[in-house]
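COURSE: Structural Biology Practicum
ASSIGNMENT: Worksheet 4, Part C
STUDENT ID: 0417
INSTRUCTIONS: Below are two proteins. For each, the amino acid sequence is given first, followed by its structure token string. Answer the questions at the end about the second protein only.

PROTEIN I
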Amino acid sequence: MKKLSIIGLFIFALLNFNGCKSEDDVVFIANNNDELVFTNSFLSEYLISFATSSNIAERFTWQSADVGVPTNVVYTLQKSITGDFTDAENVGTSSGNEIALTVGDFVAYAVEAGSDDDPNTDAPNSVDVYFRLQSTVGSGEANFSPTQTITITWLENTGADAAVCDLDQLWLVGAGVTFANWSWETPQQAKCSGNGVYSGNIAFTSDNDANFRFFTANADWGSGQNYPFFADAGYTIDSRFENAMDGDQNFLFTGDSGLYYLVIDTVNKTITLDAPTATGECDLDILYGVGFGLTDADWSWETPVQLVCEGNGIYQGWVNYRNEGDANFRFFTANADWGSGLNYPHYADAGYTIDPKLTNAMDGDNNFMFIGETGQYFTIIDTVNKTITLE
């Protein structure tokens, strides 16, 4: 009898708890009705090629939705080949305000749409691909932006300049490679740039052990190619490289620390170092960075940061930033020329979308100020799409 009383009391308490729900227990479903539009400026035509696949093609941006209450809004970028989005594919998701797509992404969409870069086929070399942004708040209905049409056009390939290599790139990892070290987080690449030729602008350092090794596969220690691998194959190797004579007989860099244009020619069997070299089409070959916010430069012309032209109007490269002291700096169009400086307002007034880790220092020269976390970032200045990004 006592047990039955206890059970009854428990059931009564349960019913009483459920009956005491207040307004605080009601689940609020946010309504996502404000207008959703892209805020970036689109080009009339986007030129693509396999050679520039790693470049940023477009950075889609928008303003945050205002739903009246603090809540998480999820944005999804969709693409469609048909234009009616019955074939909608999600190509990017973010809770922020931008999603970037590469030239390689555009290449894939152009191929899907039936185009190619061969002038001798019946396939078109230019197609339209359609994009829209979807925002979703809580369990509410999705909201969509107006459709944006993007025209993608192939750079015509005659076949004469097509680079043919056994691999797409060779990877470099080691203490002698400035922005890599012995880690697979940021390995450096020498990409296939000619028949049997791999090349790239690589920063080397003679500090610490200064050793490194080439690899044929990313994140695969077993794919390494050390100094004897090339020496025994009859390669003529730049004098600034030696056998490290360590356990793995790695390469040892013995030159001055800095940025070099590295070329591995597997046909003529040479490994050479030269001055940084532009590999794209830009107004300048190199943009220089100087200032206290740039760890490797400071306010000195002895070791300025160099962003090399490596795409259509694109300057890029790895940079060490520090968020200490003034943390200010400026870009320059000419080496050792203070009068060639380009400060924050120069880009802001020209309509550039500037990475939020950079702001106006509001000093005498209105320099850039780095306000992100101290460390290394892959920096891209895109003069065509007018963006400055730190990744």
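PROTEIN II
(use this one for the questions)
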Amino acid sequence: MGVLSIRSSFVFFVLVFVVHVLLTLSIAAEDGGFSYIVGSGKGPEDWGRINPLWQACGNGKLQSPIDLLNEKAQVSPELGGLKTEYKPVPATLKNRGHDIAVFWKEYAGQININGTYYKLVQCHWHSPSEHTFNGERFALELHVVHESSGGGIAVIGIVYKNGQPDPLLEKLLEPIKAIDKQDIDLGVIDPGIIKFGSGEYYRYIGSLTTPPCTEGVPWTIVREVGTVSNEQVEALKEAVDDGFEANSRPTQQLNDRAIWLYTPSGTGGAA
């Protein structure tokens, strides 16, 4: 076989592979690609069988979310305080069908985790909360998603109980009520409006909570429970596609993973 034929065959192979990857990845974006309804054939218990690229959802050992057991958390002052370096830039509201998300269009700041910088990309909501505290589930959970220059993902999670309105959702309430499948330009949104509590947080290594459930994600879960109004929670539920009103993955096995707890005082205490 000549050099030209080898190159042509290689190019053909690469094109076929790329098309295969794009098609399989697109399943998640299509209606019915996955579901949160147990027993539907596409629910969380079946994600690992729907797509070959999602096998971690079924057989992974570092999966998220988890139950954050206070008695298992190891106090670690070495983690240091959670420092967010955010700035206001233009953002877009997106309805991804399974959730509502805010994407920042420009560089909106970063966080530093163990010496790696992750830039802020987007945030989205799950209802009810995905992570639980000692078995207790809450009304809502916000995921603030960051990405490193190498493509790694780091997420900050905040859980909310019913009570006073959340400032970020208060600002976004009318756009959320109005959104359909067309993105909404939000103008400038300051990520600094997100309340990260008193500075206490849990840290563990987990995964994405939606397919493909990629592992190796450092999670930072704010220990203080925020508040959100019932109107805000209902607006998020009404905006997503039918069947995704409850868009929370069940908690996963800890599998002997370490859970670290950072407190400014350097001591633990009840959550």
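ANSWER KEY EXCERPT:
Q1: Confidence is low (pLDDT under 50) at residues 1-32.
Q2: The first helix runs from residue 3 to 26.
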